[in-house]
Design a protein that fits this description.
The structure is a single chain. The protein has about 300 residues and is of the alpha+beta class. The protein has one domain: Lambda Exonuclease, Chain A. The protein contains eight helices and 13 strands. The strands form four sheets. Strands 4-8-9-10-13 form a five-stranded mixed beta sheet. Strands 3, 5, 6 and 7 form a four-stranded mixed beta sheet that branches. Strands 1-2 form a two-stranded antiparallel ribbon. β9, α5 and β10 form a beta-alpha-beta unit. The longest helix is centred in the middle third of the chain and has 19 residues.
């Protein structure tokens, strides 16, 4: 489709020819999408750091350099997540979504288990820095309590332990803040009164009853839902995030972790990537004859 303007034609003769101006809509050049570094610079100009809650767990603890690069234009390539864990996670949610929170732990407030949702927080002030932080991601599962607000939890196919609660508690705090203080016109879900993990440790296998006509026998893992409470402490969490932001906004890359395989691989391959491409060698007449078998 073409859009344009056309001069008005009159019955009076004119010495100038009538002109037509047309502009093709498809000819309008689209602006290239800003790079990660350009988007970060725009955010920094506004004093805002956008954080993924999941990056505050393993990535932050494994290597300061990789964490710095993740927010400065060269993120670590994503590794393949084993499909079996995704299948188990989906099966757990399919079974528990819509059920009572009491089925996870009787001491939890009465309510229902709901699927998670994508969230984005407003810009949150941080202690000890002029930057504000904005959390964005997708919660795993939400508890909707009848009288005690909401709960945020993650389903884990693992044995319950305090170390996992402390680690994943960071992203649970970020999600809780995003639910209570969402950006834009999103409806707040507040208060978020409980945080925790629902762990499903494999405890053995059992054989399921199958008809004789079935081609193969069926089995199932035996497990139980174990609730691991995470104590909410926004002050401590935001102090941790302030430290992470100071790491991200360093002008120079921090030292990598000694055992970081990704940094080691980067150092090994960087010289090769920076080399100029080799000139193509044109074979001589004798070389060509030897290669083609004509000699």
């Amino acid at each position: 489709m073409f859009w344009g303007t056309m001069t008005t034609l009159t019955s009076q003769p004119t010495t100038q020819p009538t002109t037509h101006t047309c502009t093709s809509q498809s000819a309008t050049a689209r602006k290239p999408r800003p790079s990660v570094a350009e988007r970060r610079q725009a955010d920094l100009a506004e004093g805002i750091i956008k954080l993924s809650p999941s990056s505050l767990t393993f990535l932050h603890d494994e290597c300061p350099a990789c964490f710095w690069h993740h927010y400065n234009g060269r993120p670590r390539p994503a590794t393949a997540f084993p499909k079996v864990f995704g299948a188990l996670d989906n099966a757990q949610k399919e079974l528990f979504v819509g059920r009572s929170t009491k089925e996870v732990k009787k001491s939890l407030p009465a309510g229902t288990i709901q699927r998670g949702k994508r969230v984005k927080s407003e810009a949150i002030a941080l202690p000890g820095t002029s930057y504000r932080v904005q959390f964005g991601g997708e919660t795993d599962t939400i508890f909707r309590f009848s009288r005690a607000g909401y709960g945020v939890c993650d389903f884990k196919t693992s044995a319950p332990n305090e170390e996992a609660a402390a680690l994943y508690g960071r992203q649970l705090h970020a999600y809780a803040i995003a639910l209570e203080r969402p950006a834009g016109e999103a409806i707040p879900l507040a208060p978020v009164s409980r945080l925790g993990l629902v762990c499903f440790p494999p405890e053995g296998m059992l054989e399921l009853p199958t008809p004789k006509s079935a081609p193969v026998k069926q089995y199932a893992y035996r497990t139980s839902a174990v609730w691991v409470e995470v104590e909410r402490n926004d002050e401590e969490f935001l102090h941790f995030v302030a430290g992470a932001v100071k790491l991200i906004t360093r002008r120079t890359m921090p030292r990598s972790a000694p055992n970081c395989g990704w940094c080691r691989w980067t150092r090994m391959t960087a010289p090769l990537l920076e080399q100029e491409s080799f000139a193509v060698h044109e074979p001589t007449g004798l070389e060509h004859a030897l290669l083609t078998g004509a000699a």
